[in-house]
Amino acid sequence: MTYTLADIAIKLDAELIVPSALEQSKVSQTQISGLATLTNAKSGQVAFLANSKYQQQLNSTNASAVIVTSEAVEACPVSALVMDNPYMGYAILANLLDSTPRVASGIHRSAVIADDVSLGDNVSIGANTVIESGVRLADNVSIGAGCFIGHGVSIGTASTLWANITIYHQVEIGHHCLIQANTVIGSDGFGYAPVKGQYKWHKIPQLGSVIIGNHVEIGASTTIDRGALDNTEIRDGVILDNQIQIAHNVIIGENTAMAACSVIAGSTVIGKNCTIAGLVGINGHINITDNCIFTGMAMVTKDINEAGVYSSGMPAAPNKEWNKTNARVRRLDSLTKRVKELEKLLANN
């Protein structure tokens, strides 16, 4: 699919500024078929500048046009699509030029669908997918190949599931959700009672479910456990990256974003509009207020009642420097004792 620069300017609500040496009417009809970085862009492609550290790459770009702010127009040697938020412009244009194939087309003959499944209009189901009794699929739902949709599951309008996804029984998924491949939703939470005897752990059936809100996106190979009694809840607008673990009875508030390989232990409540970076570990049975940011490798062990930025992960350092720092940390206890003794001596004099 291609668009002219004039069409793109309209769709982005951007101002098209053409270098003075070029003819405006001719440039505005330039055909655009792709997006690329400033360094790799060629004629017929659009690039964008959203981070000032890439400003130097603007000088040598071969893009037909670059999405920039008004402050960067003078430095742009090619046509400019000027808007306040170039990154949003990139996102809109990427959607226009998206060539991702559909996950399925129609209902494949090898799909196994129970007789009482409710199918909306324009539902697509891929090869070798199994859909059990009582499932409700709304209009324009698309389910990729090799999926398993358990008993009584409900999936809302225009939601898309890629290949090899497992949705356990009674899970509810809202409308316009996107779930990437190999994700598991509704698996048993980690619930066991300690007992005496040969086998130390007695399994506790997980009787709750998982409720996924609307416009939620879930990355590949992410696992969301069902609740023990109440439900695990992922509320509207949440975005989850790949390989995330969300334990039973967790609640994640609206529009919170969570990056790859982070984990949330059971019965924790995350507020709205939080940002959780990669490799963050969040303890169970705690509450985190709205608008918190946790930087990479943070370990959250207690309630957070005040919005802000929280960190605890140690950044990498040269090995010799790290060894010295670690040795100092190990001596902190004895150093603290010595300081207290000195304080007592000073207080007595």
List keywords for this structure.
single chain; 349 residues; alpha/beta; Udp-n-acetylmuramoylalanyl-d-glutamate--2,6- Diaminopimelate Ligase, Chain: A, domain 1; UDP N-Acetylglucosamine Acyltransferase, domain 1; 3 domains; 10-stranded parallel β-sheet; flat; N-acyltransferase activity; UDP-3-O-[(3R)-3-hydroxyacyl]-glucosamine N-acyltransferase activity; lipid biosynthesis; EC 2.3.1.191; UDP-3-O-acylglucosamine N-acyltransferase
How would you describe what is shown here?
The structure is a single chain. The protein has 349 residues and is of the alpha/beta class. It is flat. The N and C termini lie far apart (85 Å). The relative contact order is 0.06. The mean pLDDT is 96. One of its GO terms (cellular component) is membrane. Pathway: Bacterial outer membrane biogenesis; LPS lipid A biosynthesis. It catalyses: a UDP-3-O-[(3R)-3-hydroxyacyl]-alpha-D-glucosamine + a (3R)-hydroxyacyl-[ACP] = a UDP-2-N,3-O-bis[(3R)-3-hydroxyacyl]-alpha-D-glucosamine + holo-[ACP] + H(+).
Question: What's the structural blueprint in terms of helices and strands?
Answer:
Elements (H helix, E strand, L loop, with lengths): L2 E2 H8 L2 E3 L6 H5 L2 E2 L1 E2 L9 E4 L6 H4 L6 E4 L10 E4 L3 H11 L15 E2 L4 E2 L4 E2 L4 E2 L4 E2 L4 E2 L4 E2 L4 E2 L4 E2 L4 E2 L4 E2 L4 E2 L4 E4 L4 E3 L6 E3 L6 E3 L4 E2 L4 E3 L6 E3 L4 E2 L4 E2 L4 E2 L4 E2 L4 E2 L4 E2 L4 E2 L4 E2 L4 E2 L3 E3 L4 E2 L7 E3 L8 H12 L1 H17 L1
Parallel strand pairs: 4-5, 5-6, 6-7, 8-11, 9-12, 10-13, 11-14, 12-15, 13-16, 14-17, 15-18, 16-19, 17-20, 18-23, 19-24, 20-25, 23-26, 24-27, 25-28, 26-29, 27-30, 28-31, 29-32, 30-33, 31-34, 32-35, 33-36, 34-37, 36-38
Antiparallel strand pairs: 1-3, 2-7, 21-22
Pathway: Bacterial outer membrane biogenesis; LPS lipid A biosynthesis
Family: Belongs to the transferase hexapeptide repeat family. LpxD subfamily.
GO molecular function, one term: N-acyltransferase activity
